[in-house]
Each structure stands twice: as C-alpha cells, then as structure tokens.
Amino acid sequence: MARAKKSQGAYVISVVAERFQVHPQTLRLYEREGLLKPSRTEGNTRLYTDGDLERLELILNLTRDLGVNLAGVEIVLNMRERMSEMQRQMQAFVNFVRSEMAYPVARDAGRDSKALVRANHPIPRVINRKSL
User: Residue 42: phi, psi to the nearest 5?
Assistant: First the structure.
C-alpha cells in the first residue's frame, strides 16, 4: 500500500526530472536539503505530487532565473509558509471579530437602544476650570 500524498497525480523521479529538465540527482539533493519532501511507496520509490511539482517550479525559478542559492531558497520557502500561516490566522481573526460584532447587536436588540455604553462603575464627575 503506498503512502502517497493525496493529489491528482503522483510522478516518479525520472518523469519529474525529464519534465523539468533537471538531473535526478538534483531532485535528490533538494530532498536532502529539505526543499522537497516527496512521499514514498512501500518499495521506497519517490512519488512527487502536483503540489511537489509546484514547489519544484518555484525552486527552479528562484535558482535559474534569479540566481538564488539553496540557502536563500530555503529562506524564501520558509517565509512563504509563514506568510500563508499569518494570512490564515488573520482571516480567522477577522471572522471572529465579525461574528463578535454581529452577536451583541442581535443579543441587545430588545434592550434600551439609546444607551451607547453600559458602565459597571460610577462615572467620574467632570471638573471644570472655573472650580480650580
């Protein structure tokens, strides 16, 4: 039974190497460096998913087109992952705030709508300049 990642396709190393015009050793190097993480079959054959191919394309664009070394590629990939996580967290926060803002309106609909703020403590008396 294969331990492949779920995706539309799974490609062996020779197919990926030919498609992207890289040597299979380059793909193995990227795996050793932690840049790619292909799944493996029970027989230990590497299987590259569509997501892996997208990541490989980004790696090759950075190295071939922009001249970024592998250490730089790792930094860029980590930053992209962090940014994606931050976007997910921000969206969750926005959704939370929206739900919290909508909830009091529905909850307080039957209460005195003229009250803007309910104070649990006495409101301090304002001192004017003339009394000083």
Answer: -60, -35
Q: Which of 85, 16, 76 is nearest to 51 (CA)?
A: 16
Contact present, 34 and 74 (Cβ < 8 Å): yes
Q: Pick from 79, 74, 52, 78: which is nearest to 63 by CA?
A: 74
Does the predicted TM-score (pTM) go above 0.90? no
Parallel, antiparallel, or unpaired: how do β-strands 10-11 and 46-49 relate?
Answer: antiparallel
Q: Per DSSP, what are the bridge partners of residue 46?
A: 40
Neighbouring C-beta atoms of residue 35, cutoff 10 Å: 19
Mean pLDDT of 100-111: 65
pLDDT exceeds 50 at position 4: no
CB count within 10 Å of CB 30 equals 22
Q: State the pairing for strand pair 10-11/39-40.
A: unpaired
